[in-house]
Amino acid sequence: MDQAAFIYHPDELKYRFPDDHPFNQQRLALTADLLRSAGALADADVFAPRMATADELALVHTDEFVRAVRALSDVPPPPEWLREADRFGLGDGDTPFFPHMHEAASNAVGGTLRAAELVMSGARDHALHLGGGLHHAFPNKAAGFCVYNDASVAIAHLRKHHQARVLYVDTDVHHGDGVEFAFYSDPDVCTFSIHETGKFLYPGTGMAAERGNDLGFGATVNIPVEPYTEDESWLECFETPLRRTIAGFRPDIIVSQHGCDAHAFDPLAHIHCSMAIYRRMPQVIHELAHAYCGGRWLALGGGGYDIWRVVPRAWSLVWMAMTDHPLIAALGERPDLPLPEGWADRWQPHSPDPLPAAWLDPVQDWEPMPRRSQIAEKNRQVMEHAMLYLPNLQRSQPD
pTM of the entire structure? Predict the structure, then answer.
C-alpha cells in the first residue's frame, strides 16, 4: 500500500472571510472527521502545515503585494493601506482582507510546501493538503478567494530546488488562471485545467486556444466544458486529453488541484456532475503518477461551496484513492454504500440541508439534463481542438 501524508491542523480554519462569504474552511474539519469516522485516516499520517518564509513567497509574489497583505492583516489596518486595499484585490470584492490574513495565508502556502518536501524527499509517496489549492491569486493581486497562490509557490519551489518537470492538473470548475499565468512561458511546467467555459463563469479565461507562449507553447492545456455537462462527458474530456498530455510531457511529479465545485449541488457554477467524477479523477491521477512519476503526487484542495453535502465526500475520496483504501474499489460494486452514521449524527444539526446517506449520489433518480447529447458533442469538439498541439509537449532533452 502507498504511504501518503495528510497535511492538516485546525489552525487552517483561521483562513476565514466574513460569515456570509461562500468560502468556508469548516469543510476541512468536516472532511477530516468523515475520514476518521470511516477508519480511513490514522494519526500517524497527519502532518501539520508550517509557515512559508518570505523568500518562499517571493518565488511568486511581489514584495509590494506581500507588504500589503501583512499591513492589511493588522487589527486595525493602517489607514494608508486601507486606501490601497482595492489595488491589491483585498478590498470589498471577492477576497476581502481579514484579521491575521498574512499568517493564515502563509500557513496555507507552507502546508503545500511541506507536502512537496515529504514527497520529494521520499518520506511519502503522495501527499494531500486540502487547505491549499488557492489557484486564482496572482503575483501582485489576490483574486477569487485566494490571497497567496500556494500551488504556484510549490511548483516554483519544485523547479528551483529539485529541477523537477511538473504537470499541474486542475479539476476545479473555475479555470486555474493564476497557476497558468505564472508558468505560461515555462516549457518544464505543463498546466492542464478542465473547467466550465469562461463564457459563463469566473474568471472568464481558460479557452482551448490558450496554449502557452514562447518556449512554453503547447504546455498549457485547457478543456472548457459547457454548462450542464454531466458525468460521462466530463470524464471523457478529463481522461482522454490528460492521458495524452502526460504521455507527451513525461513529468517528474504531478501537482493536482481538487476543487469539487463541478457538482450539481454547488451554488457557484452550472455543471451537473455527481460524486462519481470525484471517485474517478483521483484514481486516474494516482495511476498516472505511478506510471510516469515514480508515484510522486502532491494533491491540493480548492473550490467547493456546498461544504456539507459535497466537499467532505469528494475530498475523502481523493484521500481514499491516494491510499488505495478498500472502499474505493467497493464503490464500484456498491455505489449505495452508506456514510458512517456517527458523522452524519454529529453534523446534521449544523447543516442547512439533509446530509447524504451514501458516499455516491443516486444519479439514477436525477432528471437528465436537456440537450445532453448536444452538450456532450460540443465538449468533444472543444476537447479535440485543445489536443491539437499536444505533440509540442515532448522534453527538449532525452531522458
Answer: 0.97
Look at residue 391 in the predicted model and tell me its pLDDT. Answer: 60
Q: Which domain holds residue 327?
A: 4-358+377-393
pLDDT digits (tens, 9 = 90+) for 341-350: 899 999 999 9
For 277-314, the pLDDT digits (tens) are 999 999 999 999 999 999 999 999 999 999 999 999 99
Active site residues: 136
Q: Are strands 46-47 and 4-7 parallel, antiparallel or unpaired?
A: parallel
CA distance 279 to 277: 5
Single-letter amino acid code for the residue at 108: A
Q: How many CA atoms lie within 13 A of 139 on its CB side?
A: 10
* Number of continuous H segments (helices) and E segments (strands) in the chain: 13, 8
Structural domain includes residue 103: yes
Report the relative pairing of strands 253-257 and 297-300 from DSSP bridges.
parallel
- The tally of domains found in the chain comes to 1
The answer as to whether 364 is a domain residue is no
Instruction: Establish if 291 belongs to a structural domain.
Output: yes
CATH number of the domain at 314, please: 3.40.800.20
Q: Is the CB of residue 357 less than 8 Å from the CB of residue 52?
A: no
Q: Give the Å distances, CA to CA, from 195 to 43, 235, 271, 396.
A: 34, 12, 9, 29
Instruction: Give the DSSP per-residue string, 262-325.
Output: TBTT-TT----B-THHHHHHHHHHHHHHHHHSTT-EEEE------TTTTHHHHHHHHHHHHTT-
CA gap 82, 64 in Å, rounded: 14
Residue 363 lies in a domain: no
